[in-house]
Specification:
Radius of gyration: 22 Å
Largest sheet: 2 strands, antiparallel
Number of helices: 6
CATH class of the largest domain: Alpha Beta
Structural class: alpha+beta
CATH topology of the largest domain: Rossmann fold
Shape: extended
């Protein structure tokens, strides 16, 4: 970490400049993956699971029995905290359904932000993997989808190395 103390005024613009990343360079990496999944379907997903995550999955979906087992493994205190967070997030997002007109806000001169409520039939949610489960990410993505009445919600997350 670089600590900058009392920078000169002429340094300010450079110091607050956001880093730029040209995402177009990712297209050449991602396009073949998308094409393989489009052409070969689940088999491509199994192949990429092996290649990128080092796992051999029997199925790509979590069974109802596995969900029940996971729920049973959550300590009661944590389960109550998750349920409280769910209720709070639900109540907040439910208010958005009541908005009749788009919400508009000028955050800076010439910068207009607008929020509109539009129905979506199908949503995909991605929850990153890692060392700790991110319950908050699941809640912040899935609860608004439930409140909005999305007909189909698909949640994806990388498998652990211990996946079968």
């Amino acid at each position: 970490m670089t600590i900058i103390t009392e920078p000169k005024r002429e340094q300010w613009a450079e110091l607050v400049r956001r880093p730029a990343f040209d995402v177009t360079q990712l297209f050449d990496v991602v396009r073949p993956i998308m094409d393989a999944v489009h052409t070969h379907g689940d088999q491509a997903l199994h192949d990429y699971g092996h290649r990128f995550d080092g796992v051999e999955l029997e199925t790509l979906a979590v069974s109802p029995a596995e969900v029940a087992e996971a729920v049973d493994a959550v300590p009661q205190e944590l389960r109550e905290a998750i349920e409280l967070a769910y209720c709070n997030i639900y109540d907040f997002h439910e208010l958005q359904l009541q908005a009749q007109a788009p919400v508009k806000l000028e955050t800076a001169p010439g910068v207009l932000c607008e929020q509109r409520t539009l129905p979506i039939q199908r949503v995909g949610l991605y929850v990153p993997g890692g060392q700790a489960p991110l319950f908050s990410t699941v809640l912040m993505l899935a609860v608004p989808a439930a409140v909005a009445g999305c007909e189909e919600v698909v949640l994806c997350t990388p498998p652990g190395r211990m996946a079968r």
